[in-house]
Amino acid sequence: MNSFTPIENLGRNQLIDKIKQEERFKRDEVIYGIGDDAAVIRNSDFESSLISSETFVESVDFDLTIAPLHHLGYKLSMAAVSDIVAMNGLPVGITVNLALPNKVSVEMVEQFYKGVHYAGEVGQFELIGGDITATRGPLVISITAYGKADSEQITYRSGAKPDDAICVTGDLGGAIAGLRVLLREKEGFDQTEAETTQPELDKYEYVVKRQLLPNIRFDFLQLLDLQRILPSSMIDISQGLIHDLQQILTSSGVGAHIYQAAIPIATETRQVADEMETDVDRYALYGGEDFELLFTISKEDMEQLYNHFDDFSVIGKITEEKQLLIQGADGAEINIDFSAESN
Fold it and tell me: I need a surface site. Which of 92, 105, 172, 204 has the fewest CB within 10 A?
């Protein structure tokens, strides 16, 4: 009798582990396959290719009523290449596959690709192919990103060591704050009897941009290259700080102690949380889609980094004990269960 295990009972990461266990054949050129932000394939003794793929489903990963199509094309393209950046690599090209329902017009597709091409201009990567098909379901967009890196400079999730500093670029929680603002405006639009309405978003410009036009940290990679600094581990913050830090800790076989008061949160993000009477720390810890870089680094390299780059914050340190402790502003500590977060 065949068993039936709902995927929600297992969780995404454990499902991926089961898929990985079924592997039957391995090529010598594949340095690293499933388990990090991107796969690594050796091109030569000095250079490797990086490959990563993302799939986005309407009403699950995006909402066309709050995301203009040119913004969507930009955001999803940048989200895909962010995985390349998180490996300390530079994107080269992307392929875009679309499954289009009948409600999507030619003009809508053109708007989407305007955003894709603008992302390529900003990130210096090219649209190099893809496929278009029809679907009776929702709009589905799949993007594969290709990049390159010096083989000796690739940064994995698995290199964090005890006493390394835990750092993040930029600030966190802005993207989820922007999403909450857009969803509130959508709700107001749905309830109004007027035929048209113009959302008042001027005062929320910063957080809305964080949601619709994410800033991928190419500048940080350039700085690392110029200063010859190599983080011990790195990941992009797409699922939220706690979730993505847990990926580093699990891969590296270590724990962490982070300080809630040290987590960088923009004033605009705090204002949205206050206005909506929500906990801004939850925005930063669990919000996701900020696409900032979470990395670990030795104390020596951290001091050098401080001398040349000011858009990052030290939020904690790596520990030997395999637990994730969050210390609040009042000194109280919360122990986050890895198994709960890995699902």
Answer: 105
